[in-house]
Amino acid sequence: MAGTVIGVLFGLFLLFVVGQAFWKQIRFLISIGLRMVLGGLFLLLVNYCAGSMGFTLGVNPASIITLGLLGFPGFLLLAALKLLV
């Protein structure tokens, strides 16, 4: 009985140590994913508001990733590319 309790406690300790080791990477991936979702919603909002004026940006994985990784400078990059092309 005591060996089982010690084994379970040791397993929980190992799970805690491994979780702490990978927490920064997991938090970084969650942050990037959340920024990509918000970037896609922002692109849809821009297309809805500025679409009547003839300015639309493509909502595709490349533009969502650009906006998710770079933020507002990524939006400015997409808008500049749209105006140039």
Could you characterize what this model shows?
- There is one protein chain.
- The chain is rod-shaped and about 75 Å long.
- The chain is built from three helices and no strands.
- The chain has helices at about 1-50, 60-70, 70-85.
- It has one domain (about 25-85).
- Helix 1 (about 1-50) packs across helix 2 (about 60-70) and helix 2 (about 60-70) packs across helix 3.
- The longest helix is centred in the first third of the chain and has 49 residues, at about 1-50.
Number of strands: 0
Mean pLDDT: 89
- Global shape: rod-shaped
Unreliable stretches: none
What Rg, in angstroms, do the CA atoms define? Answer: 22 Å
Number of helices: 3
Task: Bin the helical content.
Answer: over 70%
Measured by DSSP, the beta-strand proportion falls in under 5%
Order of helix and strand elements from N to C terminus: HHH
Q: Please state the structural category.
A: mainly alpha
Query: How many strands, what sense, and barrel or not for the largest sheet?
Result: none
As for the number of domains, it is: 1
**How far apart are the first and last residues' alpha carbons, in Å?**
72 Å
Short description, anyone?
The protein is mainly alpha-helical and 85 residues long. It is built from 3 helices and no strands.
How would you describe this structure in keywords?
mainly alpha; 3 helices; 0% strand; 85 residues
Task: Describe the secondary structure blueprint for this structure.
Layout: H1 2-50, H2 61-70, H3 72-84
